[in-house]
Amino acid sequence: MPALSTPLGDFLRACRARVDPDATGLVTGGNRRVAGLRREEVAVLAGVSADYYARLEQGRERSPSGQVVSAIGRALRLDADARGHLFRLAGVSPGMALDRSRDEVHPALLQLLDACPTSAAYVLSPAFTVLATNVIAAELLSPFRGTDNMVRVLFGHPDARKVFLQWPTVAGATVHALRLNAGRYPDDPQIRDLVSELLAESDEFATLWNDQTVGGLARAHKVFVHPRIGRVELTYQAFDVRDAPGQQLLVGTPAAGGASADAIALLGSLHAVDSACDR
């Protein structure tokens, strides 16, 4: 039976290619024709037969036990996000279901956004569509007005690289988090359609997506160059929204007393002036 291309097999191949053989303690020898570990070496490290691991990677074994999947995760030196993704792809940990609340922001959360007047705070859907913002976040993202999905902004908006000074880092982290969500919510049509669209339109997105790396949104330092106020540096923290699975609250805060704090205050003042002029 010919080998099948499966999400699990593709992920396993990508992960073993990233493992440094010398870091595993195996006697690997010289002259290696493949990057990372060979299938046989993963099998040894995981304590399974080489044939079984090959069948798993080739799509010919579809019902691994949780113990086997855990052992393979350790052999491949996966972090917590990647292990969770591996379990979901292997069918050991089922994907999470999304309900109608995926795109509805609770009124209490909207109040919380407005209670962060010196931070940029916004809520993202599982497909990274911006569902709600406070005033500062709305102004900070104003160069992209008309495009409400952050993945489309990063890979399709002409000003993305001007505004996001660390575009490669931000773009990579976003794609890795989107792939993690795709595993968590395999039936989400918005994620599926977004990925299909960008695979066809962006070679850079396709390269990052096909790398198979996964990782949740974590604390991050981001540098913006805003057309009205110039450089702004914020430290972002992501929070899961418990009553709307899949939604995340992102809060970006400047260092107290610095130039970025002054820039954020100016952004709020500009919003107030603009709002008054619109009345």
UniProtKB/TrEMBL annotation:
Which GO terms fall under molecular function for this chain's record?
Answer: DNA binding
Q: Where is the signal peptide?
A: none
The cross-references to InterPro entries, in alphabetical order and at most eight, read: Cro/C1-type_HTH (IPR001387), Lambda_DNA-bd_dom_sf (IPR010982), MLTR_LBD (IPR041413)
Please name the CDD domains in this protein's record: HTH_XRE (cd00093)
Pfam families named in the record:
HTH_31 (PF13560), MLTR_LBD (PF17765)
Q: Where is the HTH cro/C1-type domain?
A: 32-83
Q: What is this protein called?
A: Transcriptional regulator
The species this protein belongs to is Streptomyces yokosukanensis
